[in-house]
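Why does residue order matter? Because the sequence determines the fold. Keep that principle in mind as you read this record.
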Amino acid sequence: MKVPIRWLKDYVDFDLSLGALVNRLALAGLEVSGINHWGLPAPEGLRLGAEDPYPVWDKDKIIIGLVTKVDKHPDADRLKLPTVEYGSGRSITMVTGAPNLSVGDTGQKVILALSGSVLFDGHATPKVLKELKPGKIRGITSDGMVCSGFELGISEDHDGIIILEDDAPIGMPLADYFGDSIIEIDILPNKARCLSMIGVAREVAAMTGGKLKPFEHKPHTFGPAITGKVNVVIQDTSACHRYTASLIENIKVAPSPAFLKRRLHQAGMRPINNIVDITNYVMLEQGQPLHAFDYDVLYSRAKGKTPEIVIRFATKGEKIKTLDGLDRELSTETLVITDTLGPIAIAGLMGGAETEVTESTSRVLLESANFDFLAIRKAMKSMALPSEAATRFSKGIHPDQVIGGANRALQLMQEFAHGLPAEGRIDCYPSPKPLQVIDFSLAEAKRILGIAIPLEECTKLLTSLEFKVEKVSNEMLRVTAPTHRLDIQVGVADLLEDIARLYGYDKFPETSLSEQLPPVLIDPELDFERKIKDTLVHLGLQETIAYSLTSPEAESAFLESAKPAYVTLLNPISSERTVMRQSLMASIVSLTQANLKHTECVKFFEVGKVYQKVSGQTLPLEPYKLAIAICGPRNKPFWVEDSSGKNNLNFYDLKGIVEGLTSGVHLEKVSFKPGNHPALHPGKCAALMIHDKVAGMFGVLHPKLASTLGLDNHEIIVAEFDMQTLASGLPVRYLSKPVSRFPAALRDIAVVVDQAITGQTVTAEIQAAGGNVLKVARLFDIYQGDRVPAGTKSLAFALSYQADDRTLNDKEVDKLHKKIEDRLKHVLKAQIRGKEV
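Structure:
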């Protein structure tokens, strides 16, 4: 929101320097992101947005002048020789080619720049500041120039000179006449009421104690009544809360007066004509968007009947040609303004080209309406059609604002377009919005703020923001919010926010707690999540946080269900974010895919929610999942190492990470078995088991899926586990044991078993036979080939025997080893290699 200081002072009296005003606005929650200057030097330390060079208007050289005579150039048909008077009997004759320079009955007021002025060069691209010097143009000496907006640095227009108002004082420095500073404010959603000059003025008045000036305006004369000249029907009152139509006749469409065009330029808008400019001006001033229709076109479309305006949602296949000249197809979720022949405007976004105001327009139907912010926001995004009006509607406007906006526009059209408003207006307001009334307790205020603010001070602060305050008792106020404060929804907390910021956060004392803090009870789920994250970070992984919003197409290959039931968004932010995710694996693969464009090695994990719709229930289940993805070289290659890719991370690296994780958080009853998942390689997939329950799957991304995602050259190993199932493996109490100070005895054992028997099964039998003395049983080799019978395989294990209270002798180790061999023979029908053939 661009706020010119001179314009702001039309509504509020304040006496602050620019720097002090910026600081006060920041305290009010209105952050100033930039400051631009029209001809004024930037105050020291306040060059926000003014780092680029701009012309500072010299008060002695850039002044207001009066054109008293215009002669033709003797040697050039397109050049003129104007004589400009600039006060105290002084005048100057110069050469110009401005097409809009003439002498009227009283002469034109123009902006005169004398030699020595610094202006933008009108013939240079990009913009260059240049000192104006005397020179000859086609044989005629010129010591000055009449200025365009481009040369002064206030617009991009250099086709003609600026023509000032008739009452502009001759000889006054331009910097004194309309030199200005324009502050740019970032309006946050909770400050949408400040998307207008009057909205900002209210905040300035409250923060500075300044007095708001009256700003209610109405036309001073009226023509015949509007009755019978137009009808209005609202078909969907949930999307259009209020619609008013006003008629103004006998208008003359022409360029806007200089002050109005100047203010639109300052606000970043392009002047068009007086009617359109007035609707934009009122929107900037009051925050109420307006639209002007050519009434005679509407009457013609009605074929002699009374024009009827209908507000409804578009039907399938409807189209409209908008003011920007584009033919737009409308969706059934787009709110439109229609007549008997079809759409004439997209509600809150843009008008139709057929009913636009043109130079031949003599009667205008003025729309001032209130539309549902969600309907406008959805249409704005789906049609990619942002506008100043749509921005305001999408943030919320109170229906009561439509009358003030319409009255102001009619008054300006009467003054600057010579129109005659019809008596009355058509006003459809099916469900008037009630005022927000809040009972305000001082005790509750002290409890929330931690400071006792006197009743009188609270009353004063709220009244300064135009709240109506009624004293109920010495401890209670009844507060009625003004209609422009749609943000007052929660109740007392909303009022306290305003009281606190006006009272001054810097006035709040620092107070120590009067009692000791109570003991903090650790949430076991949060504590487990923290331990999971810490352990994975220690294992060398990096945490990621992905969007919870996705699309069914992005997840389909990662889900075991062919037709999952999604939690669908009613108002999605984009076509790629339409549902709540059901898989973290899809999210982390997407992040891996994006990051592999910039790095070789990826080691990611994420802990987050998925959303599972449950039939018959309003709310979905929101279980927490853990996803892991690794890809790339295991470490940075050394010059003597093999660079053929054997150094890349593989399935067993992820299995090691999972083992490190389960060990690091002390999970019990952990095992692995072959798994199956549609997104994973069928031969390189495993299930993590906790107490014989599947906690999730991990493995190599399926080659077909990798190819679809453009990851043919990368082997991505991914995992997804259920956090609740993982937590079920936590022991009630974990007892740490000291490291044995006695040496370990190391033995190997190689067994031949049926190829269907897993290494996990053999390991379990070895550990069962070895008991507490067997500390480690690690598989280090698998062999299938000619040296073992067909249908079998050889598994070799490294065993470590170690007692906690003594050194084991060879006889004890041999006995334990024999026990393991016997159990494997008996239970698994295994052959011990080296002892049996």
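The first strand starts at residue 2 and ends at 4.
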